[in-house]
Write a structure and sequence with these properties.
By secondary structure, the chain is α+β, with helices and mostly antiparallel strands. It has two domains: about 15-150, Beta-Lactamase (2-Layer Sandwich), CATH 3.30.450; about 255-410, 2-Layer Sandwich (Heat Shock Protein 90), CATH 3.30.565. About 50% of the residues lie in helices and about 20% in strands. The chain is built from nine helices and 14 strands. It has a five-stranded antiparallel sheet with strand order 4-3-7-6-5. Strands 9-11-12-14-13 form a five-stranded mixed sheet, covered by helices on one side. A two-stranded antiparallel ribbon has the order 1-2. Strand 13 and strand 14 form a beta hairpin. The longest helix has about 70 residues, at about 145-215. The two termini are about 25 Å apart. It binds adenosine-5'-diphosphate (ADP). Adenosine-5'-diphosphate (ADP) binds near residues 310, 344, 346 and 366.
């Protein structure tokens, strides 16, 4: 149980941390990419302004002083392109030239391709005549920028993984430390319940045997006294059962207490059906028993007997007169499947999740005095778990319930 809580705690802690780191990295990525782009735009604008200054208006046409260092342009993966006012290309320099037409509205243009290219378009104004004489478009391949961003992405992913691993180790240590006192107090509480039930057994046995002796010779006893003694005997029996149940549950986590011997479930189930015969007949129930020849598993026969007697007892109690109870047992691949079906009152879907809780009862009318402590199914579940099995239940109100148990063969 604690292992489960520990895993869930650790998992939610890591999930939250991963979420925080993810958002943080995404923020860094966005800011970094934005500032790199801005830097690039500034660089291209400066280059464009230089290129614009090299153009002048001569004889009614754009004349470009072509003194740009081509090598520098190539090294920087940049290119220059001049246009006249109508957008006709006049001169190109460099490798990464945009093939998109000139756009006078979009100052910044990006052309997808391999590599992606980003460009800035600047108007060329002749200061002498104060007139627009053309445009210059400066472009640069985005390869370098994308490479930097790629490296950043990898860096962030690796840092997140490293951070999560370190936090995971820290988290394991922390959850272990945090759970230790809870686990200890839980164990102490269990030990106390086990000790208390154990200690209560002896005085209860003494009361029980003394009452039994008194009732052995009822002659000369007043009728009222006899009834009182009988009531004491029955209450003592129930208290002995209850302490027995509490002891089983308190010790239910100590797996090594479980005996392992070959057990044929057919023998147990047939024996139980015989035991309950009188109860079954008194309610005029129709009991159908369908079992394979042998249903052999390794386990604790007394505990297994307890498991099935609790389920059969419930089926009988919660099934109205003339109802049907079916007990089926058959081997599956690696396990034995036992189903106990009844046409009883059923369990509502909201109660279905709670029936295995200790002391929980949907039907509060069943009390200690008629055999129900609310611990029956909790004990069933504990015994099934100890045998490495599973138990599931399906039920419909007013129609009936079906408990299915799988017990591993080994
Ligand atoms: P109890 O001793 O009260 O029977 P259990 O732990 O055996 O306690 O069962 C818990 C509750 O589950 C019961 O109070 C009852 O409401 C419900 N329940 C168990 N078995 C059946 C069944 N076969 N049909 C209907 N309800 C059931």
């Amino acid at each position: 149980m604690f292992k489960n809580i520990r895993h869930r705690l650790l998992l939610s802690y890591l999930l939250i941390l991963a979420l925080i780191l993810g958002i943080f990295s995404l923020g860094i990525r966005l800011i970094f990419a934005y500032s790199l782009r801005q830097q690039m735009i500034e660089k291209l604008t400066a280059l464009g302004q230089g290129a614009a200054a090299n153009a002048e208006w001569e004889n009614n046409q754009l004349k470009i002083d072509d003194d740009f260092k081509l090598r520098e342009l190539l090294n920087n993966h940049q290119s220059l392109q001049w246009f006249d006012v109508k957008g006709n290309s006049i001169l190109k320099q460099g490798e990464f030239i945009l093939s998109l037409p000139l756009s006078q509205d979009n100052l910044v243009q990006i052309q997808a391709g391999n590599p992606n290219i980003q460009s800035i378009t600047l108007p060329i104004i002749d200061s002498d005549i104060d007139k627009l004489i053309g445009y210059v478009r400066v472009s640069q391949s985005l390869e370098e920028l994308e490479e930097i961003l790629n490296k950043l992405d990898w860096g962030l992913v690796i840092s997140i993984i490293v951070a999560l691993s370190i936090s995971g180790i820290g988290g394991i240590l922390l959850t272990n430390q945090a759970m230790k006192p809870i686990e200890e107090s839980f164990t102490r509480l269990k030990q106390f319940t086990a000790d208390a039930s154990h200690e209560l057994r002896n005085p209860l046995m003494v009361i029980d045997s003394n009452v039994a002796v008194s009732l052995k010779y009822p002659e000369g006893m007043r009728e009222a006294d006899k009834e009182s003694f009988e009531a004491i005997a029955s209450a003592t029996m129930q208290m002995i059962d209850l302490t027995e149940d509490l002891l089983i549950l308190a010790r239910s986590d100590q797996i090594n207490l479980l005996k392992k011997e070959p057990v044929n479930l057919v023998i147990i189930l047939e024996k139980l059906v015989k035991w309950y015969q009188t109860k079954i007949e008194s309610k005029n129930l129709n009991l159908k028993l369908q079992l394979s020849e042998t249903l052999l598993i390794y386990g604790d026969s007394l505990k297994l007997e307890r498991l099935f007697s609790n389920l059969i007892d419930n089926a009988i109690y919660y099934t109205p007169e003339s109802g049907i109870i079916e007990i089926e047992g058959k081997p599956k691949k690696c396990s034995i499947e036992i189903q106990i079906k009844d046409t009883g009152i059923g369990i509502s879907p909201e109660n279905l999740e709670r029936i295995f809780e200790r002391f929980w009862r949907a039907d509060t009318s069943r009390s200690y005095w008629n055999g129900g402590s609310g611990l029956g199914l909790a004990i069933v579940q504990a015994i099934v778990k100890h045998h490495g099995g599973t138990i599931t239940v399906t039920s419909q109100l007013g129609i009936g319930s079906c408990f299915t148990i799988y017990l591993p063969i080994n």
